[in-house]
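Morning F.,

Quick status update on the modeling queue. The single chain you submitted on Monday has been processed. Sequence for confirmation:
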Amino acid sequence: MAGAGAVSAQGEHEPTRRRLERAASEGDVARSVEAFGLAAFAMAGGALALLLPALLAAARALLIQALGGHGASAATVLLLAAEGGAICACAAGGALAAGALQTRLMPRAVVLAPRWERLNPAEGIKRQFNREAALHLARWIALAVAVAVCGLNALRAAVGATLSGDPAAALEAARRVCGALFVPALLLGGAGALWEYATARSARLRRLRMSRDELKRELRESEGDPHQRARRARLHRSLRAGLAAVRDATVLVVNPTHVAVALRYDPETVAVPVVTCKGADERAAALRLAAHRHGVPIVEEPALARLLHATVAVGAAIPENAFTAVAIVIAAVLREARRAEQPA
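Structure tokens below.
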């Protein structure tokens, strides 16, 4: 099989999960470069908002000491350095968190390996001057203009406060400008990062599309994979157990084609109906066939089927919020059964 990052000559098929996982293990994942800067900006902005009063007080004390001719005290300098270091650490932590979320914390030694082709000046120029780089620059320019427009009033007030000559007013104006610019920058930057990630994900899926021969080869390799064989065996055992459980069910609640949940109610043994098996899509179709085969009533209740499938584990009793709906279904089934038993 060709490398996971190679572009298929005839990519008419969606990539398989195995191909996607192999590409991810080689460092080929969808990522947004802007998300790193956005996360760093958000964390640094939050830290700055928390530390701003202390930071302004320390800066004011440092300014007074300098103007008084006494020199800056070591305690004031250390305090400013600690606060600045905390803001930088928050920014670095935000960038690392953004990277971890996008790569799902998967260790990739191949990413850390040196790639000497990146030292080629011609390739570097191509990376810097291409369509993606131009779009990236255009997004940043648009973001800067939009943020400036959003904070225009605060900027005007800040200019007036600065020209007044009052240091306290200037610092307060600077604080207001930062507050006025932070939220618009965060929202617009988040929209840009999401758009970039969606674009990168779409491009990655197109790049990893498979030809018919690649798909056949992938399926053959998957058939021989012991992990895939074990997974298929587990699914087969689970399906057999579910089909057997349908035989003893009181009713099968369906939605009407995508979800199926089998319920068993026996007042002599259980006080509350129990989910004996459930399934979606192909498994739901198999459960419906088994219900037909064993004569188990099938009731179409889409909302109830979705609720039970999403919230109740196999072997567990139904929740309180489903008591009324399940009681109505089971009562109707039991009435129909008694009516069928009565002689004509």
